[in-house]
Amino acid sequence: MLKVAILGYGGIARSHRKGYEQLAEQNAPVELVALCDIDPEQFTKLVTINQGGESGIRKEYRTYTDLEEMLAKEELDVIDICLPTYLHCEYACKLLRRGYHVQCEKPMGLNAGECAEMIKAAEESGKKLMIGMCLRFDGLYLALKELIDSGKYGRVESAYFERLSAMPRWGFKGWFHDYDRCGGVGMDLHIHDVDMIRFLFGEPKAVSSVANDVRTKFTTMHSRFHYDDILVSAIADWGQSNSTKFRANCRINLEKATVEVGHKGGITVYPDEGEPHVLEPTTKLSHMAEESLYFARTILGESENTKNTLQSAAKTVDLVKKLVESAENGGKIVEV
Questions:
Q1: What would the pLDDT profile of 82-118 be if each residue is shown by its tens digit?
Q2: Domains in the chain, ordered, with CATH?
């Protein structure tokens, strides 16, 4: 049984916690035992994030406001880092070198240098590190990939992705509003679709993007991914009003069907011949639960991490940076 602690109990950590609670119901070999956050109010505060309101905690956890105290008192195998983006590299490297396996929220880092430093720390420590590119573990997107790869409806002709949200208001000391600490909508929101585009279609030849700076630098990004024979575009938007609900969906045109991943969940296939039908997800577990279970199995030696490698997570960060480069230069095409 692997013992896990979450470091940083802000918005996304609530989703991680619920994933571990789901795994506990499945008698999985991984157990969340402790939470750590510098702000003690986080352990009792109701936090609403893009995924919806916080549900009640199903069990008691030991809580700490000091990392060193937690490490001294707990026998831990894994630290699940849910800290703000600008702290990912520092704490991942530190904890790996102190002998802990690390599961770290996306993005891997803010730039190629941080990503390389994290990979080096993992290699030198001999400990496992995995980055939370959670859609690679989502049953809907995995079903979508299976459908595309099967060739049942022919090749992909075009694809459109969108991920829309109000500006996050729950971040520690407003870090989402600080581009240097967050990386803007590109590194926080857009990165999910950037990674999924790579996962579904492979590496683009080039990218281009335009952006605006309304609430922070790069509030909204409209991006193109240049392939030889596929037209792919994506929008990420923090410019929505505060009363709007988070929305994420995509539509993919194949030769013989259109497939839609709806913003309320579910995949609908609209074939040229026959009636529309719903595609079943590949798993009943949440993507957070699947992600943590997958990581646990790599630690236990039951499988190798082939789905979500460190090199791939670093490439996604690099691709976002190329989109940023394009947007900072009037939307010029940047080769990958």
A1: 999 999 999 999 999 999 999 999 999 999 999 999 9
A2: 2-133 (3.40.50.720), 136-287+316-335 (3.30.360.10)
Q: Can you give the pTM of this predicted structure?
A: 0.93
Q: pLDDT tens, 2-57?
A: 999 999 998 899 999 999 999 999 999 999 999 999 999 889 876 655 544 454 55
What is the pLDDT at residue 216? 80
In the prediction, which pLDDT does 57 show? 53
pLDDT given for residue 52 in this prediction:
45
Give the separation between CA 150 and CA 148, rounded to whole angstroms: 5
Q: Residue 50 has what pLDDT?
A: 52
Pairing of strands 257-261, 247-254: antiparallel
Q: Would you say 10 and 82 are in contact if contact means Cβ atoms under 8 Å apart?
A: yes
Using CB atoms within 10 A of its CB, is residue 98 exposed (0-12), middle (13-18) or buried (19+)?
A: exposed
C-alpha closest to that of 107 among 276, 253, 336, 324:
324
**Greatest Cα pair distance in the chain:** 63
pLDDT at 178: 87
